[in-house]
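Incident review: delayed structure delivery

Summary: a single-chain prediction request sat in the queue longer than the usual turnaround. Root cause was a stuck worker, restarted by the on-call engineer. No data loss occurred. The affected request and its eventual output are reproduced below so the record is complete for anyone auditing the incident later.

Affected input:
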Amino acid sequence: MAGTARRSIGTVLFSGYAPIAPGTAGSAVTAVAYYYLCASLNSVEWVLVLGAVFLVAVYTAGALGAEWGEEDPGRVVIDEAVGYLVTVAFLPHSFWIAFWGFLVFRFFDIAKPVPIRRLEGLPGGWGIVLDDVAAGIYSQIRDFDPIAERIAKVGGVRVVTPMIEGQPPDLINLPVGCSFQARCRWAIDKCA
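Output delivered after worker restart:
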């Protein structure tokens, strides 16, 4: 991968060069990209996107760390991008999910509760990226912290994944009316 392309990817479009809080800047760029580009991803596509971004992040972070002679360069913020995407993956797509997901992820990424900090000790790009993936997973855990959950409810949206009660709809005899119909690529007449 060419040097400029690697730096562009590793610093999330050079947001990692922000003079203050480069990790927050990288997460913010990713949140905006998520909001505008990921509205119609289904679960399979999310897994593919996360897997691809994760592998690119591990390679790029490790390569830039070696190139710059630093164990975890502050300019490398693709790890924050992966962590943020883990936070919002599989949640309903909305502005509030993007916004509160950003705040909750940054909280866990900065606080680094146990055992996240241990993951930083892994070699190369693995240590750079996996602590942020763990912060993203912590951000997804239901009812992990009642205070964080209360904060996440501001704006009328829960950032944590809610449990859905009941049975899934019958795929042969779909119920009439679906709130996802307007943005669903598989919508049929029965969905309206």
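Verification: The chain is about 55% helix and 0% strand.
Action items: add queue-age alerting; document worker restart procedure.
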